[in-house]
Write a structure and sequence with these properties.
alpha/beta, ten-stranded mixed sheet, 12 strands
C-alpha cells in the first residue's frame, strides 16, 4: 500500500493531464487517481493509473473531494492534490513527507510553485489572508525565486494546485467546501485546519511547475474571486461557524455585523471575481448549485473517527 495517493483533477485537457501523470511516474510508490471532472470525452489513462468519472463538472473542490474520498477509503496516509496542469519535480514528494513525518501536527504541506514558462520565477510560494477587498495576498507570485523563498515556514495558506494533505487532518477537519466552486477552497480549508490547531507548512524543496498563467492571471484566479469569505481579525482566530439553513457562503463564514453585510456584497463579489466560475457553473450545472457536500460538514465515515485534534 502506498503512503501517498495522488489525486489529479482533470477537466478537458488530456495533454496537460497526461503530462502531469508522466511527472508523477518519476516519484516512487505513489498511488495515482485521476478524477475526470465532467469532461466531454472520457480520458484514457496510462496503465497503473485509476480513474473515476463524474458526469458533471463538480468544480475543483467537488472533483478534489471525489478523489480524496477514494484515497481515504484505500487507507492512504497522505493525499497529494494536483491541478492537471502541474508538473511534479523529482523528489518533491519525499521532501513533503519529511515535513509531515517530523511533526504530526502538520495538516498540509505546500509546494514551491514555479512558472513553467519562466521557471526562474514563482507562480506562487504561499498566501496570506489580508481581510481587505481581495481577501488574500499572494507571496512570491511573479517574483524571481531566491533566498526569501528558500526556507521552510508556517503559513496561512498554500497553493491549492499542489498540496500534500494528511489523512488524519482530513478526517478531523473535513473535506473541501464545495460551495467554493472554483476559487479559494484551499484558503478556507487551511483556515479551518489552523483554527483546529493544525499547522500549514510551505516546503521549498517540494517543487512543482504550473503552466499557462502569468502573474496577472494568477492574481485574477486567486485574488479576485469572492472576497468576503472570512471574518476580520478583530473577531479573533479564523474559524468556520456552523451552517445556518439558507445562509449564503459568505454569511456562514462571517460572524456578527459582517454576516449582515454579506448578502448585499455577494452580487458584487460574483461580478468582480467569479465570472469564469459562474459561467462554468451555468454551462455545466444548469439545474442548480453543486451537490450539498460541504467541507466542514463532510463526514469521513469509518476512517479514523477518533481523529478530532492533532496530537
Amino acid at each position: 500500500m502506498s503512503r501517498i495517493s495522488a489525486v489529479v483533477v482533470h477537466w478537458r485537457d488530456p495533454a496537460a493531464t497526461l503530462a502531469c501523470l508522466a511527472s508523477l511516474a518519476r516519484e516512487p510508490e505513489i498511488d495515482v487517481l485521476v478524477v475526470d471532472n465532467g469532461s466531454r470525452h472520457p480520458l484514457a489513462v496510462p496503465p497503473g493509473v485509476r480513474c473515476v468519472r463524474s458526469e458533471e463538472n463538480r468544480g475543483y473542490a467537488g472533483g478534489a473531494n471525489l478523489g480524496i474520498r477514494d484515497a481515504l477509503a484505500r487507507r492512504a496516509e497522505v493525499v497529494l492534490l494536483l491541478n492537471d496542469d502541474v508538473r511534479v519535480h523529482p523528489g518533491a514528494a519525499c521532501s513533503a513527507l519529511r515535513v509531515l513525518d517530523r511533526d504530526p501536527r502538520v495538516a498540509a504541506v505546500g509546494a514551491k510553485v514555479l512558472a513553467r514558462e519562466d521557471p526562474q520565477r514563482l507562480w506562487l510560494a504561499w498566501g496570506r489572508v489580508t481581510y481587505r477587498q481581495s481577501l488574500v495576498a499572494l507571496c512570491g507570485a511573479g517574483e524571481l525565486d531566491g533566498p526569501a523563498y528558500a526556507e521552510e515556514r508556517d503559513v496561512e495558506w498554500i497553493a491549492g494546485c499542489a498540496m500534500w494533505l494528511r489523512a488524519r487532518a482530513l478526517a478531523a477537519v473535513g473535506l473541501f467546501d464545495e460551495e467554493f466552486f472554483a476559487y479559494h477552497e484551499e484558503v478556507e480549508w487551511c483556515a479551518r485546519a489552523r483554527a483546529a490547531g493544525w499547522r500549514v507548512v510551505y516546503c521549498p524543496d517540494a517543487v512543482v511547475t504550473h503552466g499557462g498563467r502569468g502573474t496577472g492571471d494568477v492574481e485574477g484566479r486567486r485574488v479576485g474571486a469572492c472576497p468576503q469569505v472570512l471574518h476580520g481579525p478583530e473577531h479573533g482566530p479564523l474559524r468556520t461557524p456552523p451552517r445556518e439553513p439558507g445562509a449564503t457562503r459568505e454569511a456562514r463564514l462571517l460572524p456578527g455585523r459582517h454576516a449582515a453585510a454579506a448578502a448585499p456584497l455577494e452580487p458584487a463579489a460574483r461580478a468582480r471575481g467569479r465570472g469564469r466560475a459562474e459561467d462554468a457553473r451555468r454551462a455545466r450545472r444548469p439545474h442548480g448549485p453543486p451537490p450539498a457536500v460541504r467541507g466542514a460538514g463532510v463526514a469521513v465515515s469509518g476512517y479514523l473517527d477518533s481523529a478530532r485534534t492533532p496530537t
